[in-house]
Write a sequence for this structure.
């Protein structure tokens, strides 16, 4: 795509899986700090992404731990791809980075989604690798820095709609998932792509105390959905590398689906030949479907999906079918 930023030095670099010794040497400064706690089961164990209340504005702090690879900063901000603009103002950065849903960081005694950013400091995102397996010609362990340098990054403005009816509009930085899939060459028998989030109880307080959930967090797409031009792999937000609360250093963005499909902090990708079990769909199937397309005509069992609330302005407006991406994705479901 014309707007993708690819530094010249890396243009001819052939991408190879990272050697085992590199990823086994991954630094873990805080492994034994003991942030584990035996917290109690919170009253409501169901998915909640409410962002309506705006309290105590947060200061966004970047930790040294945000380092991923040398030269990462040269990729941000990336050139905006004008094919992916939107019809509404962007949300405030402080809202998108201060009110998050990331169950792995629900702290014992403080499961408030507005507090997620306070519990991410121990999460080590450096030297991030992604394990690729299953029905692919290119299995292996890939360093995120190599992927970004190989594919380049661009900025896209996307709507973002939670199943619990809040909505925002944000500028993601990253690369199309189709670029990654083309590189990984799934075998003809592959039908779905399954992704997993890091599962590190020692760094993620929500995992160590919410023992009733089937960790790690998993999500999946049918391969046609994954290859759609809109499906994006984000490594940045608001012109900077992703903050941990938003899924650093790499996450999925599928804006025509409810937010829970957009899995954060991805450590593995597996190509499979049937629809796999996923975190929310397996746990609460009556509330969270596998496909989970935004649809004003299909109510959630406990509330209507006909309208949504803008996270920054509080404006209530009608929900758009496929969250406004029908032109690009409706054909997938005909
Ligand atoms: N990914 C992981 N690993 N864990 C989560 O709890 N929450 C999902 C999704 N990805 C979640 C996740 C939900 S419900 C939503 S609405 C979005 O992340 C929220 O993304 P945001 O915090 O960047 O707005």
């Amino acid at each position: 795509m014309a707007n993708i930023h690819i530094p010249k030095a890396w243009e001819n670099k052939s991408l190879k899986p990272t050697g085992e010794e590199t990823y086994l040497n991954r630094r873990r400064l805080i492994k034994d700090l003991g942030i584990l706690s035996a917290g109690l089961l919170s009253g409501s164990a169901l998915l909640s992404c409410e962002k309506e209340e705006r309290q105590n504005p947060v200061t966004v702090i970047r930790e040294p731990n945000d380092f991923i690879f040398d030269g990462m900063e040269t990729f941000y901000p990336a050139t905006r791809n004008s094919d992916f603009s939107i019809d509404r103002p962007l949300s405030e950065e402080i809202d998108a980075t201060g009110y998050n849903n990331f169950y792995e960081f629900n702290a014992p005694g403080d499961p408030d989604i507005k507090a997620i950013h306070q519990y991410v400091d121990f999460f080590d995102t450096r030297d991030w690798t992604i394990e690729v397996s299953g029905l692919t010609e290119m299995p292996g362990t890939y360093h995120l820095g190599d992927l970004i340098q190989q594919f380049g990054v661009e900025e896209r403005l996307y709507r973002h709609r939670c199943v619990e009816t809040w909505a925002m509009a944000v500028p993601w930085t990253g690369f199309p998932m189709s670029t990654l899939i083309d590189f990984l060459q799934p075998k003809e028998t592959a039908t779905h792509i399954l992704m997993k989030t890091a599962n590190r109880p020692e760094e993620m307080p929500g995992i160590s105390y919410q023992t009733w959930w089937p960790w790690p967090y998993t999500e999946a797409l049918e391969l046609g959905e994954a290859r759609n031009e809109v499906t994006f792999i984000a490594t940045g937000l608001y012109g900077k590398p992703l903050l941990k609360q938003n899924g650093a250093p790499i996450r999925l963005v599928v804006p025509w689906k409810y937010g829970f499909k957009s899995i954060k902090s991805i450590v593995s990708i597996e190509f499979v030949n049937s629809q796999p079990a996923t975190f929310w769909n397996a746990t609460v199937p009556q509330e969270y479907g596998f496909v989970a397309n935004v649809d004003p005509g299909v109510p959630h069992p406990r509330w209507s999906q006909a309208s949504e609330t803008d996270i920054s302005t509080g404006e209530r407006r009608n929900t758009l079918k496929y969250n406004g991406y029908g032109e690009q994705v409706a054909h997938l479901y005909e």
Helices lie at 20-24, 93-98, 144-151, 177-184, 205-209, 223-227, 279-283, 326-329.
